[in-house]
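Task: sequence design from structure.
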């Protein structure tokens, strides 16, 4: 039986979260942050049948490059972050190639989640110029945790602990609210009183 304590103290890949969502009859599409949200709602007592997808899938015909302009709505228009949109932005910025930025994808998901029918392509360009507007959200924190955990396991010091994932979670909790929350070995020393209980030779 899945519990809040178990869920909060273990790391799950996106595929794991999708499998859990399918097992319990929850929406199984979306970002890791969205899947986490569905599972936590269930663990806090919301019935699976009452948990609805945070975003509706865009099933409209995709707009062609020639149909996109600054005033194109991001919602209910057929606009998608695909090759046609890539061509549009490459032409707009006078580039031979254009690569979508993470901030653009986050903005698109926010538009879908909030059913924002006023947002336009112009707003995506504004986000490119000021990406910090979308940094402080649950999805970004998911990415930061992933990076933190990846770097944590690159440090052989994790092998000194019985439950490394709990050590990583404890260190992450201690630093996640700071602007610089990357993992580095010095955290093991700085926060040793918090993690010593997980040491292999702890008594």
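Answer:
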């Amino acid at each position: 039986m899945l519990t809040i304590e178990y869920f909060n103290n273990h790391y799950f890949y996106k595929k794991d979260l999708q499998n859990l969502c399918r097992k319990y009859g929850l929406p199984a599409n979306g970002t890791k942050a969205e899947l986490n949200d569905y599972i936590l709602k269930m663990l806090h007592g919301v019935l699976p049948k009452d948990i609805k997808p945070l975003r509706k899938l865009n099933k409209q015909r995709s707009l062609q490059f020639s149909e996109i302009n600054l005033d194109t709505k991001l919602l209910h228009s057929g606009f998608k972050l695909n090759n046609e949109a890539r061509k549009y932005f490459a032409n707009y910025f006078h580039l031979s190639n254009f690569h979508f930025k993470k901030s653009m994808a986050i903005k698109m998901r926010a538009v879908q989640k909030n059913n924002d029918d006023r947002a336009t392509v112009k707003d995506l360009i504004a986000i490119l110029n000021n990406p910090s507007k979308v940094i402080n959200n649950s999805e970004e924190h998911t990415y930061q945790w992933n990076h933190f955990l990846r770097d944590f396991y690159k440090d052989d010091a994790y092998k000194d602990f019985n439950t490394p994932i709990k050590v990583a979670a404890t260190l992450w909790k201690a630093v996640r609210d700071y602007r610089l929350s990357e993992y580095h070995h010095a955290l093991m020393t700085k926060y040793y009183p918090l993690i010593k209980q997980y040491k292999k030779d702890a008594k």
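The mean pLDDT is 86.
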